[in-house]
Design brief:
Distance between the termini: 35 Å
Helix content: 25-40%
CATH class of the largest domain: Alpha Beta
CATH architecture of the largest domain: Alpha-Beta Barrel
Oligomer: single chain
Number of strands: 16
Structural class: alpha+beta
Largest sheet: 10 strands, mixed
Number of helices: 8
CATH topology of the largest domain: D-amino Acid Aminotransferase, Chain A, domain 2
Low-confidence stretches: none
Shape: globular
Bound molecules: pyridoxal-5'-phosphate
Mean pLDDT: 97
Amino acid sequence: MPAKTARIVYLNGAFLPENEAHLSIFDRGFLFGDGIYEVTAVLDGKLIDSALHMARLERSVGEIGGRLPLTTDEIVAIEKRLVADNKLTEGVVYLQYTRGAEDRNFFYSDDLQPTLLLFTQVKTLEHVAAVDTGLKVKLMPDQRWARRDIKSVGLLPQVLAKRDAKAAGFDEAWMVEDGLITEGASSTAYIVTHDDRIITRGNGNATLPGCTRLAVLELAREQGLTIEERPFTVEEAKAAREACLTSASNFIVPITNMDGAPVGDGKPGPMFNRLRVLYMENARRTAI
Ligand SMILES: Cc1ncc(COP(=O)(O)O)c(C=O)c1O
């Protein structure tokens, strides 16, 4: 069998084969989870919702008192070069920023050189079975921290929630706090009522402000659809006609089963189908 070609990745100024890219054992991302990440979808070799991801990256880094070593234009140029060098047509570009490396100490030096790592991943995003069959979500207690608006690399609660959801035969976890759904373990959560209202939690510290969410809601608004940005209860979710989730690596997919019971008639619904068409068309039109 021919050897798998090493991906070209970007690390701190250099484009390198993946097996030649090395990080310090003292990197604060590794020791403290002191870092931020972004995942941007790639379709037809182009970046999807790029400006939204760069804006959120700048915000997250700002919220932890960090500084990006490059401008977002320079970062987008790196992403495009990685997509080209790796001949990526469909998948994601992963970006990780950390505060940098120094001997372990909770207190950090202000002059640290940040770490910036980017790599591509091949992934089928568009023609996935979930679009037709829907996903099964398990409701689970939200055990995360109080600043979920920051796209932190500290993802242990999500890793554990997804592990437990998968072990129980589900595809994704929906997190519940005080009887209210916050969001998916790695996605934004929506329900659609029997009278066609789209409900998703408003942005705040309880959830990550999804880039796909921003794009979908803007398109829905342009169509005059009714959107309620507010917390919704487990009971509302279970009584919904439809449910769906969004994320950069799923775009928008329906949820047809919640905690073992069908959502609505257990099939992807008309609102989901409409939003999916709107989103995919817009994603392609605005891709760079
Ligand atoms: C907790 C959480 N919420 C929402 C999302 C969706 O965000 P986006 O649409 O920007 O991918 C993600 C994506 O990873 C996530 O991890």
